[in-house]
Amino acid sequence: MAHQGVKLLGAWASPYSRRVEIALKLKGIDYEFVAETLSPKSADILKYNPVHKKLPIFLHNGKPVVESLVIVEYIDETWSSGPSILPADPLGKANARFWAKFIDDKLMPAIMNIRRCQGEEQVKAIDEVVELFKLLENQLNGKKFFGGDTIGLVDITANFLALWLIIHQEIMGLQIVTEEKLPVFCKWIDEYLNSSVIKQSLPSKEELSAALLAYHKS
Amino acid sequence: MAHQGVKLLGAWASPYSRRVEIALKLKGIDYEFVAETLSPKSADILKYNPVHKKLPIFLHNGKPVVESLVIVEYIDETWSSGPSILPADPLGKANARFWAKFIDDKLMPAIMNIRRCQGEEQVKAIDEVVELFKLLENQLNGKKFFGGDTIGLVDITANFLALWLIIHQEIMGLQIVTEEKLPVFCKWIDEYLNSSVIKQSLPSKEELSAALLAYHKS
């Protein structure tokens, strides 16, 4: 099948690469996936993302777009097939961008901080993360997804939280996202992981668990 | 004159608040400016930006939008008056967003790092910043502004680099952005600071110098 000049350079276990895959699957765009590693970095990574030398890299007719959220917006603006990933109105767009940025700039660093702490400090770091999750959870406000009835930018951005984080906390024996602390968010995880597009776009829990277990042991 | 329900809660000396002012002036939107401080924080800051408790906060018909770049895109999408701040085509939009993010996430932290270093370490920190500036400079590629013939998202994002940084380096006696090291970027600074919209939107060098000198002495 033709790839319409659409190529994704990504890493299998990367939630950032998977964001792009979700967007492409939502839009029904056929694409070629090129599995890359960050160590060593291929000539293509250095050529197409000389500034950050990171993945994912999206190529459309040979032109590169990088930074996962920039790519997702590019895909939404380029293909009108499938549901819109961002709302049509400027206020809805602004809110989606705000919460996507909140996940990347505020919640993710706070989660990374948990692993750096121990004992009492770790308990405090977990509490801080749960408080941030509650702010995010409030945005669901009775909706099925952050995007409403369909998966939107914030849902895509949150893919790490739905799967990777859950596996990490199981491996590390930590209680961060639990039914008791974050019931609304846990319901979202269920809806999200069971939606057909996400099932097609993310690795299974078993496969990813095996990969992350190897990472924790390394 | 009516304010069309447009209010900006900002700080006079903040480059982030000024980004929003540039966007509003480019679009010819009349607005009410409410001078705020971060210490103490007003009830409005806590009400409208409970997540970050930061400025600027943009209110349109009472609805808040926060994060300066999110606000600038909101303004561009809401008002078609005046020049477009982002290009019309998805690839142009993606590039503008990439370089705006580069300034905020890569260049600004590297600049902040200079002040934390001393001696040989500071020389190295400055060299690193100059290398990042060269990547940005390359994007001008013969154009008057990053946005082409008119001021765009990247130019707006770079307002700190055009004025605040120049004053800081003078006060601190450092050579970061110089004609010799970054001739193309210095030419952009000239064009930018002398454009009519920027003259109306930024404080004068004298006024800002006095404010930043007080900051350095504190």
Automatic annotation (TrEMBL), chains A, B:
<feature type="domain" description="GST C-terminal">
    <location>
        <begin position="89"/>
        <end position="212"/>
    </location>
</feature>
<dbReference type="InterPro" id="IPR036249">
    <property type="entry name" value="Thioredoxin-like_sf"/>
</dbReference>
<dbReference type="Pfam" id="PF02798">
    <property type="entry name" value="GST_N"/>
</dbReference>
<dbReference type="InterPro" id="IPR045074">
    <property type="entry name" value="GST_C_Tau"/>
</dbReference>
<dbReference type="GO" id="GO:0004364">
    <property type="term" value="F:glutathione transferase activity"/>
</dbReference>
<dbReference type="InterPro" id="IPR004046">
    <property type="entry name" value="GST_C"/>
</dbReference>
<dbReference type="InterPro" id="IPR010987">
    <property type="entry name" value="Glutathione-S-Trfase_C-like"/>
</dbReference>
<dbReference type="InterPro" id="IPR040079">
    <property type="entry name" value="Glutathione_S-Trfase"/>
</dbReference>
<protein>
    <recommendedName>
        <fullName>glutathione transferase</fullName>
        <ecNumber>2.5.1.18</ecNumber>
    </recommendedName>
</protein>
<keyword id="KW-0808">Transferase</keyword>
<dbReference type="Pfam" id="PF00043">
    <property type="entry name" value="GST_C"/>
</dbReference>
<dbReference type="InterPro" id="IPR004045">
    <property type="entry name" value="Glutathione_S-Trfase_N"/>
</dbReference>
<dbReference type="GO" id="GO:0006749">
    <property type="term" value="P:glutathione metabolic process"/>
</dbReference>
<comment type="similarity">
    <text>Belongs to the GST superfamily. Tau family.</text>
</comment>
<feature type="domain" description="GST N-terminal">
    <location>
        <begin position="4"/>
        <end position="83"/>
    </location>
</feature>
<dbReference type="InterPro" id="IPR036282">
    <property type="entry name" value="Glutathione-S-Trfase_C_sf"/>
</dbReference>
<dbReference type="InterPro" id="IPR045073">
    <property type="entry name" value="Omega/Tau-like"/>
</dbReference>
<dbReference type="GO" id="GO:0005737">
    <property type="term" value="C:cytoplasm"/>
</dbReference>
